[in-house]
Amino acid sequence: MKYFDSNNTLMEIVEKYPETIPVFTSNGFTQMDDKAQREKFAKSINLKMALMLKQIDYDSFAKLLIDSIENKNNNVDATLNTDSNSNSKENINVVGLLPCPVRIPLLESFNRFIDDYKKNHSIEINHELKAASMGLDWVENNLTDVDDHKDLPDIFISAGFDMFFDEKMIGKFKKQNIFADTTKLTKLNPEFEKINLKDPKNHYAMIGVVPAVFLINKKELGDRKMPTSWADILDPAFQKRVSLPVGDFDLFNGILLNIHKHYGDEGVKKLGRSLLESMHPSQMVKSNRKKDNKPIVTIMPYFFTKMVKDNGPMVAVWPSDGAIISPIFMLSKQDKLENLQPVIDFFASKEVGEILSHSGLFPSVHPDVDNHIPTENKYMWLGWDYIYNNDISALIKHCENLFETEIAQ
To answer: Which range marks the domain in which residue 30 is found?
Structure first.
């Protein structure tokens, strides 16, 4: 039986099948839990566009909706068992924010791993793996002001820099040697050989990266020179003509930090002057349809460039000086390694690497994964020396202030 299709609005689906509401709220559509917000949001957007906005695979999400409809009296888990919980101190706790395009396939794979793990271990794996669209607020609510490392999850996964180096969150524990990279990846993917992603202090493991690239509107470009580098977009020719993913704190902060590293305070100010507006990447790929204030350059995760139509006015450009990358970190505590190591091995596996790379276009660091990235494409990485020689959390705030001051003028 066909319950819905991609053109149904979210309101049409939840009014007919209210049991689907938890599926939406558990996968990043938090406004669906509030009646007033739901009526404003859900009437105006169809399922296809909503999932595109959250970068969620349609078929996987549709299966969750169908399962909730067909099993409404059986309490089907709307989040693929992501919030399992048991209170034993021996149990393993896995927490994190997963990039939206890969969250569902990763959870499906992780649940299969857990089933196998239970056959050989008497302890449980508690896991709370939210959509990255839940944002920094969710992280702050769960990790801010934790003083005892015993209260931290055993494994924490997320993209970005904020919480990993913030002394109010996880950053303060790295000095206590609480974490260790035990992924066994002695060599990383060959395409990262020139930028050394391996933490020399062996605290932080990395399983993949989120690259930032350009999308150029050729019609709006006019007689300007095609921008091919980060230096190019700081040129006055692009003042108020660049769209940035300001709301994507993981990637945006990576962009700010790298611009500051290479171009200093003035570079961050120039980036602020370049800003036309902040847009979601799914809006960016259609920005040529705007009636006015069309950006010439949009900066977005590489994933979204695959939504660009061939032979259209929009063309993707991989920066010649390298796509700025936001790392997907995995932190693992050392005190449970005997039971924790199989879980670490899972997240560092080729299987997970291929999900990141092939489902989300987030290049994997695993040496055996083909990321399908042309060999001439470079990456721009902040670098471990820079990270350890600077207060990254304070530097992010400094860059944000510079940037915001410029756009306010």
So the answer is: 10-70
What confidence tens digit (pLDDT) does each residue in 57-114 have? Answer: 787 788 888 878 877 533 333 444 444 555 566 789 998 888 877 888 898 899 999 9
Same domain, 270 and 366: no
Predicted TM-score (pTM) of the model is 0.79
Q: What share of the chain is helix, strand, coil (3-state, %, to 5)?
A: 45, 15, 40
Asked whether residue 204 falls in the same domain as residue 334, the answer is yes
Strands 155-159 and 323-332, bridge-based pairing: antiparallel
Q: In Å, what is the CA distance from 143 to each residue of 50, 84, 137, 171?
A: 29, 19, 10, 11
Same domain, 403 and 270: yes
186 and 287 housed in the same domain: no
Phi, psi (5° rounding) for residue 129? -115, 100
DSSP characters over 356-375:
IIIIH---B--TT------T
Rounded to whole angstroms, the Cα distance separating 235 from 123 reads 57
Residues 132/100, Cβ–Cβ less than 8 Å: yes
CA distances (Å), origin 375, targets 42, 189, 318, 322: 43, 12, 12, 12
By CB atoms closer than 10 A (0-12, 13-18, 19+), residue 63 is middle
Determine the Cα angle at 99 with ends 95 and 103, to 5°.
Answer: 75
Q: Is 149 exposed, middle or buried (0-12, 13-18, 19+ CB in 10 A)?
A: middle
Reported as a single tens digit per residue, the pLDDT across 279-310 is 444 444 444 444 556 899 999 889 878 777 77
CA distances for 303 relative to 79, 157, 211, 356, angstroms = 23, 19, 8, 11
Question: Is the Cα dihedral 359, 361, 366, 371 positive or negative?
Answer: positive
**Residue 332 backbone phi and psi in degrees, to 5:** -130, 130
Token look-up 């969710």 returns: 138
